[in-house]
Specification:
The structure holds two protein chains of two kinds. Chain A is α/β, with parallel strands linked by helices. Chain A is 32% helix and 22% strand. In chain A, the strands form four sheets. Chain A has an eight-stranded mixed β-sheet, with helices on both faces. A two-stranded antiparallel sheet of chain B has the order 1-2. Classes of the chains: A alpha/beta, B mainly alpha. The interface between A and B is large, with 52 and 30 residues.
Chain lengths: 686, 297
């Protein structure tokens, strides 16, 4: 195995391939920099890869790793004043993209290369009809007449699976759901028969069942029409299911690149190894603690000649002070690690973390929280004075949570899981139903009892960027409840307690001086946890507490939550849409759909022997990070989308999408029944 | 595309460059700021700066044109116009600042409360604001000043300040409410509510600091309006009364009879008013552009 420079490696790889045709896209030693107030940020350093016709290449990495910037550099869509490409070559279909003038580049964008963005809600213009927006590129790039463009648009909408295309063309984006809008975006991307589509997190904003539909569609289209696809994502499951080749990026550089099977089964870089181990997985038995990559990614404004991953790498040695080149490894993939041979020979493995991650509480004690027939209706705003109807956000929801237990609450967006959390926190008043906390009925409780309960029930929010008051220091944020509730006396005592809380969540006491914007996402989430702990609660609602975090940070926070749970005997209501995370952390799981509970059972029962068709559909739709499993698996897609809250389905709420639906399902609302001991499901078919 | 690397250096937000950045991005704002500082200097140190006493009547030089002795000439009583302008800036600033401050602060509190409580309370506050907004600023000020008796503390006309503050209040309340509405739905406000903090604590500790930018912008913008209102009311004889030096007052009275022979009598107070109003307005605008990241390049 020879040490060669990057471009030699690539050439060698390319020569080894049987086909003689030049690749469609060839990125060679790309460097991208941004001039910022904090100095020059090197967002991409020496990235090289090729994409063949009809190939699906995935770029994976955490936020700030340079994956989106790579895509923007190819499209030449960097901010004009601050972004620069000082070095590198991008060859596309025989032309060097970096040497084209703006006019020529404009000809290529949208016609030969098109891009699909993450947020389908904002990437369509809300005041133009869908038809106009699809026809626009056709008329601009291909010079079609209105009639031709109209016919082609109808064809495109059919291609992406939108029914009744003639009528849909005259509609506006707000009349489409999120998944449908992403289909429209794909139709626009396909409009001019591009050779390459770059999809930047195309399904991150979508629910699992919709995500599966969209990805399947993109994959089929790329196969049918021989379009190359670059998928940028942080979701390893998505990569495993769809990618032929993978680039793992870390801190502006490629850590490892190669065939999907090679990278997933035999990673040859400690970062890819760690990344794959730190994700909770649906396809493996649940271990104890999640393994995590400790520490934080480096600051890209600091130039460095050492291995970028070395500070977080458990296997670093002296030679890691030198930036490693991309080595060709035994699996044929490229790895930027000096010790790749030792990894290949099995000398270096991540040690399995100790067990004792399970938090099963004895169900014999009285529940800490019990919810009975909870219902919440919102009035949907109609015209000026009238209300257009009621949205039944939560209907007839009942469950118990025992001390020290974690109850997972899963469901897709709009299923009412967040509303349940807000009702328990008394941020919303329930329309009907009862919540008992430690035996006290909250709807009849006195103000004093309510105030006591406020202290005992705390919350951790999803977004670590908006859940902390930007005008307060960390110390003030954590110290405020201590001061208001007089939990400790005196300024010195408060400071000591704040330092203790910071240590509990794994932060240094000096952090108390800082403002939230000076912290990273994971650190902020830790501050949010410390704030909740300051109240000395017995129950915490975790509303998507880890879903905004990067994979390696997510593992750290999950481990922290579990550790704190054991230490302080906390009960959690863990609201999330990520099934693997919920499986990892919960003792019991509640599955919600469209405001109703579908199934409640022990974790292993839900994931091993679920009864309700919706639960099974949900589990099927979630991709697991293993290419062999994913590529063999038949895509079992669920049709359709969430029904409208203004025209709810009669009978079972899932009847509009259920694969086992019968006439009876559309007539009766199925009650939540105990089908087996401790296993409840709301379905008449089981 | 976020370029924020998660490992930010452990420094406080940089403060030192803020003034320099402001001058570079908002040159007009910087010029207005200089004018404002000069005005404030003249107002605060009037007795030291002014060449004459503003009230001393000098019959030897009635309606004297601008000269080396009297830079801006004298009025019909022989009082030095330049000195009266300098003392007038004191009146203008005291009334301008206090009324804008009182009006904006009360308005901001009302706006935040309105956004925080929502529902019926919000409806009632906003209808009340609608009523006040229906009157032009100067008309409402006229009504209030006419309805109350003259009341002054330490030479400052409190009724005038109240009269100008009242019409400012609803305008600020409306703007601050819209800013507060977006703060209201932030998770940190939910977190404060979930912690069971009192309404006052949430409003003043968690919401108010986050709507400071629009409040500051409104405050500076309304200083200009307040100075103009004070000048107008004085001109109409409802504001500051003779012999106190005030810019509006200098334009009224016998200035109307003599302005053909002595145009300097109205020229210089007019310039002073315009300059002050321009300066505060421009400064407010620049401040808005500077503080609002959406206006940044």
């Amino acid at each position: 195995m020879s040490v060669a420079d990057t471009s030699d490696d690539l050439r060698a790889l390319r020569d080894a391939r049987p086909e003689v045709a030049a690749p469609l896209l060839e990125v060679d030693d790309l460097h991208t920099q941004f001039a910022t107030a904090r100095g020059i940020v090197r967002a991409v350093e020496g990235v090289s890869f090729t994409v063949d016709r009809g190939e699906v290449v995935a770029i994976v990495g955490e936020s700030g790793s340079g994956k989106s910037v790579t895509a923007l550099s190819i499209m030449r869509l960097l901010p004009r004043l601050t972004g620069k490409i000082p070095k590198g070559r991008i060859m596309f279909d025989g032309r060097s993209l970096l040497d084209l003038d703006d006019e020529q580049m404009r000809q290529i964008r949208g016609r030969d290369i098109s891009m699909i963005f993450q947020e389908p809600m904002t990437s369509l213009n809300p005041i133009l009809t869908i038809g106009l927006q699809i026809k626009e590129p056709l008329q601009i790039h291909l010079g079609m007449t209105d009639k031709e463009a109209q016919d082609r648009s109808i064809e495109l909408l059919q291609l992406v699976g939108i029914t009744d295309p003639e009528r849909r063309l005259d509609q506006y984006p707000h009349q489409f759901s999120g998944g449908m809008r992403q289909r429209v975006m794909i139709a626009i991307g396909l409009a001019c028969n591009p050779k390459l589509i770059i999809a930047d997190e195309p399904t991150t904003a979508l629910d699992v069942t919709i995500q599966a539909q969209i990805l399947e569609l993109m994959k089929n289209l790329s196969r049918q029409l021989d379009i190359a696809l670059i998928i940028i994502t942080h979701n390893l499951g998505v990569v495993a299911r769809y990618a032929d080749r993978v680039l793992v990026m870390y801190a502006a550089r490629v850590a490892e690149q190669g065939a999907a099977e090679a990278v997933f089964h035999d990673p040859r870089h400690p970062y890819s190894m760690g990344l794959l181990r730190s994700v909770p997985r649906l396809d493996r038995p649940r271990g104890g603690k999640l393994e995590t990559i400790e520490g934080l990614p480096p600051n890209l404004a600091d130039a460095s000649t050492a291995c970028r991953f070395a500070p977080r790498c458990p296997f670093r040695i002296a030679v890691c002070d030198q930036e490693p080149p991309l080595f060709v490894t035994d699996t044929g993939s490229l790895s930027r690690c000096h010790r790749h041979e030792e990894i290949a020979s099995g000398k270096i493995t991540w040690s399995a973390a100790g067990g004792a991650g399970l938090n099963f509480a004895a169900n014999t004690t009285a529940p800490v929280l019990s919810v009975r027939n909870l219902t919440k209706n919102f009035a949907a705003a109609g015209g000026l004075r009238s209300s257009a109807g009621t949205v039944r956000a939560v209907q007839d929801v009942s469950f118990d949570i025992y001390p020290g237990e974690t109850l997972g609450l899963v469901g897709e967006s709009g299923c009412g899981k967040t509303t349940v959390g807000r009702l328990i926190l008394r941020l919303e008043e329930p329309t009907s139903g009862e919540i008992h906390f430690e035996g006290v009925n909250l709807s009849t409780a006195s103000p004093a009892e309510l105030k006591a309960m406020r202290r005992k029930v705390q919350v951790i929010f999803q977004d670590p960027y908006s859940s902390l008051n930007p005008r307060m220091t960390v110390g003030q944020i954590i110290g405020e409840p201590l001061h208001v509730y007089k939990i400790v006396d005196g300024r010195g005592q408060v400071e000591a307690r704040v330092a203790e809380l910071l240590e509990n969540v794994g932060l240094r006491p000096e952090m108390a001086e800082r403002y939230p914007h000076q912290l990273s996402g994971g650190q902020r989430q830790r501050v949010g946890i410390a704030r909740a702990l300051a109240m000395e609660p017995s129950f915490i609602v975790c509303d998507e507490a880890v879903s905004a975090l990067d994979v390696s940070i997510q593992g750290q926070i999950i481990n922290l939550l579990e550790e704190l749970q054991r230490k302080f005997k906390l009960a959690f209501l863990f609201i999330a849409h990520d099934l693997a995370v919920v499986r990892h952390i919960s003792a019991r799981v509640v599955v919600m759909y469209f405001g109703r509970i579908m199934e409640v059972a022990d974790r292993d029962t839900i994931y091993g022997g679920s009864l309700h068709p919706y639960t099974r559909v949900l589990l099927d739709a979630a991709p697991v990070p293993d290419p062999s499993i994913e590529k063999q698996r038949e895509p079992r897609l669920i049709k359709g989308e969430l029904p409208s809250h203004l025209a709810p389905p009669t009978g079972c709420v899932f009847s509009t999408r259920c694969p086992q639906v019968s006439q009876e399902c559309r007539e009766v609302v199925p009650p939540l029944e105990e089908k087996r001991p401790g296993h409840f499901a709301a379905c008449i078919k089981v | 595309m976020t370029m924020d690397s998660p490992s930010l250096p452990a420094v406080k937000p940089r403060q030192s460059n803020v003034y320099l950045d402001f001058c570079r991005q908002q040159p007009l704002g910087a010029v207005s700021f200089v004018i404002i500082v000069l005005m404030m200097f003249a107002g605060i140190f009037s007795p030291l700066v002014a060449p004459y006493d503003p009230l001393t009547i000098d019959f030897a030089s009635l309606l004297a044109p601008p000269s080396a002795d009297h830079w801006c000439g004298t009025d019909a009583y022989g009082r030095d116009i330049c000195s009266r302008l300098i003392y007038g800036s004191r009146t203008a600033l005291v009334i301008g600042f206090t009324s804008s401050f009182v009006g904006s602060t009360l308005g901001a509190i009302l706006g935040i409360a309105s956004a925080y409580f929502g529902g019926r309370i919000d409806d009632w506050i906003q209808r009340f604001v609608d009523i006040l907004l229906a009157f032009p600023l100067i008309v409402l000020a006229l009504v209030v000043v006419a309805a109350f008796r003259k009341f002054s503390v330490g030479g400052v006309d409190v009724n005038l300040i109240v009269a100008i503050a009242i019409p400012i209040l609803p305008r600020v309340a409306r703007v601050v409410r819209s800013a507060a509405l977006s703060v209201r739905v932030m998770p940190y406000v939910d977190a404060a509510r979930a912690a069971g903090y009192s309404h006052t604590r949430i409003i003043f500790r968690h919401m108010a600091p986050n709507v400071v930018a629009p409040y500051l912008i409104m405050l500076t913008a309304f200083i200009a309006q307040a100075i103009l209102a004070e000048a107008s009311l004085s001109f109409l004889g409802l504001g500051v009364t003779e012999p106190t030096a005030a810019w509006g007052l200098m334009l009224s009275g016998n200035a109307a009879d003599f302005y053909r022979q002595a145009p300097w009598m109205i020229l210089f107070p007019g310039i002073a008013i315009s300059l002050a109003v321009f300066a505060f307005n421009l400064f407010g605008d620049s401040l808005r552009d500077f503080l609002d990241p959406r206006f940044k390049l």
